[in-house]
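Sat 14:20. Reprocessing the chain from the morning session after the first attempt stalled halfway. Input below, unchanged.
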Amino acid sequence: MKKILLIILSSLSIIGYAQDQLFKKDNSKVDVKILEINPTEIKYKLFTYQDGPTITISKKEVALIIYQNGVHEVINAAPETPAETPFVVYNSYSSSSRINRDSIEKAAFDDLVSNKNLVSFNIMEPLNGSLSINYIREFAKNYLHVYVPISFGFSSPYFTQSVNTIFSGNNYYYYNQSAYSVTISNFKYLNKTYEVGLGIHFQTSGRRAVTHFIGPYIGSSQFTGTYDKSEGFYDVNTGYSSTINTTDNKFTIQRTNIMLDNGVLFRVTKNFNIMMLAAVGYRLDTYKTADDFTKATNYNKNSFPINAFKFGLSFGYRF
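Finished this time. Tokens:
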């Protein structure tokens, strides 16, 4: 009898510990058969229905597991790793990428040209004996600009003198009569009194930081200088000549330039610009002297159809 009772108690003990016990954080208990435990989940079957479906529960909902062998395990759920934001690579040829790129470029350019006025200093003018300040105003969505240069001389315009000598000459001759001659020669520029002009330039790129421009320019300037006047006798038959008097005389030139400007504008930053300019065209000079040059034999006969040139490199402030 004692042996039968011992067998029954042993069986009950085995049955009491044959299942695992799962305690939830809501203080409920479930008799289960634990199948798997991973960092975030616990998989089990109900002990009373082990042929049933596998149940999965988050470890955050479980406080304790007592296994069938009596081992206790306190459950600490592993912290969840934040989901990483996917890095999206757009096809450079996709429409969305192109629209986005165009929008960024437009916003950057709009900020670059938000200031429409530009005042610049031509660093080449001092080499020609004058100081020059240029004013530019952009308009028409940055496809046009008005160009107004103003300059004043402080010394001899060496480049102007050289160009004048090469392309127009510096000697004028005329004769009062066959035996008496007056020779006008050695024109020298002393100073550029002033120059002011107006240009209307078309900019080929209104939506870029660098743009080429081209357009007409008309300017007015004044120069002062000296020339030599020699009076003497000349025999047209023998070619004999003699000088009886030579004097230094002063002249003033009123010059009108009609030119075609051509250049490049660099919009470096919102407030800093660089401009390169080259122009060619025609100049018309009107002399004011004590002598009547219109009587000269070669008066204005050696002027080229294109006899005016202008170059500039300017650094400026946009505001």
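The chain has two domains: 18-74, 115-318.
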